[in-house]
């Protein structure tokens, strides 16, 4: 079946599902949807378009639809689809936007940021301040109606400028973090996302397969949430404000932290490769405060706690069992 027919069928069922349809019609719709993957793709595309429409400024959307329909009334396409008014309007909007609305959806500012072993601080055009930790990668895009950051890995402290007309969204794996104006830290380390709120309220959502959002939690000052790469909550707790993003002051704080995790955190602040030739147990922990530049002091502490020896050759630090 060609794409045009599939799109027409998707439009029909999309319009039907906006009304009160019978159980028999619902069964027919489910059968059609499950017949072929292209049916699901076409239907989900209309859902995305509807979501996009809902996010637009109402006045702008009304003007856009009016102009689109004025031109569409001159075509057979409009006559064919007018009985499915909502779906038809969406499709007309798609075609019209290709030619008239591109600039509206294009970012007015974008930047690709990546740090090495040094931290970085930037201020965006809207006044939002980003403090970026070492070995962090993110993309920033500012639009007319929203502000979006994609965090690939690393740690960022956000101080978001208040702008109710342009919510600020951070995407980390399958987690969406949405705010209007607040201060909070987002970590994406080994595909585990951690959000800690310093002030304000932060909305946490899971990104579903069709790109819709499922609200998971609303965090306020002093709250912390940990999620896996699929957007599943692993832990929800509180955190002292002074412990949020201590790396900004070049300090790392460990509180009964697994030794292997502490080593991994320290590895972010060195270009040396760290090889672990000793099997640390789950019960082997470390507590303390270190400057991120004091990796030697950190390893000295480990040698007093555990039977290990540290050896450095060129650009490699080896952690071996003490002989």
TrEMBL record:
InterPro entries to which the protein is assigned, alphabetical: FecR, FecR_N, Ferrdict_sens_TM
Keywords for the protein's UniProt record, in alphabetical order: Membrane, Transmembrane, Transmembrane helix
Transmembrane stretches, start-end: 84-105
Pfam families given in the database record: DUF4880 (PF16220), FecR (PF04773)
GO molecular function, one term: sigma factor antagonist activity
Keyword Transmembrane helix belongs to the record: yes
Domain of life: Bacteria
FecR protein domain sequence ranges: 121-203
FecR N-terminal domain segment(s): 8-44
Protein name (database record): Siderophore-interacting protein
């Amino acid at each position: 079946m060609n794409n045009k027919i599939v799109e027409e069928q998707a439009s029909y069922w999309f319009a039907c599902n906006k009304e009160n349809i019978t159980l028999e019609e619902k069964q027919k719709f489910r059968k059609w949807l499950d017949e072929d993957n292209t049916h699901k793709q076409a239907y989900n595309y209309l859902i995305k378009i509807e979501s996009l429409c809902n996010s637009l400024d109402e006045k702008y959307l009304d003007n856009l639809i009016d102009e689109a329909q004025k031109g569409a009334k001159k075509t057979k396409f409009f006559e064919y689809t007018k009985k499915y008014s909502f779906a038809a309007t969406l499709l007309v909007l798609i075609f019209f936007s290709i030619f008239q609305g591109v600039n509206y959806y294009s970012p007015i500012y974008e930047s690709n940021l990546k740090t090495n072993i040094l931290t970085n601080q930037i201020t965006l055009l809207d006044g939002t301040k980003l403090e970026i930790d070492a070995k962090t990668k993110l993309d920033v895009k500012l639009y007319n109606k929203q502000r979006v950051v994609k965090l690939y890995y690393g740690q960022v402290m956000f101080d978001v400028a208040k702008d109710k007309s342009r919510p600020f969204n951070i995407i980390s794996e399958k987690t969406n973090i949405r705010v209007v104006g607040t201060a909070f830290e987002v970590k994406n380390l080994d595909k585990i996302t951690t959000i800690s709120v310093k002030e304000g309220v932060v909305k946490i959502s899971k990104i579903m397969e069709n790109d819709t959002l499922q609200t998971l939690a609303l965090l306020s000052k002093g709250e912390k949430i940990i999620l896996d790469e699929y957007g599943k909550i692993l832990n929800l707790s509180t955190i002292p404000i002074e412990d949020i993003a201590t790396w900004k002051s070049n300090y790392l704080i460990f509180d009964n932290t697994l030794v292997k995790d502490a080593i991994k955190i320290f590895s972010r602040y060195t270009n040396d490769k760290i090889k672990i030739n000793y099997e640390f147990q789950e019960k082997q922990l470390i507590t303390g405060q270190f400057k991120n530049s004091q990796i030697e002091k950190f390893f000295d502490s480990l040698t007093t706690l555990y039977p290990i020896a540290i050896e450095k050759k060129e650009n490699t630090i080896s952690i071996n069992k003490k002989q």
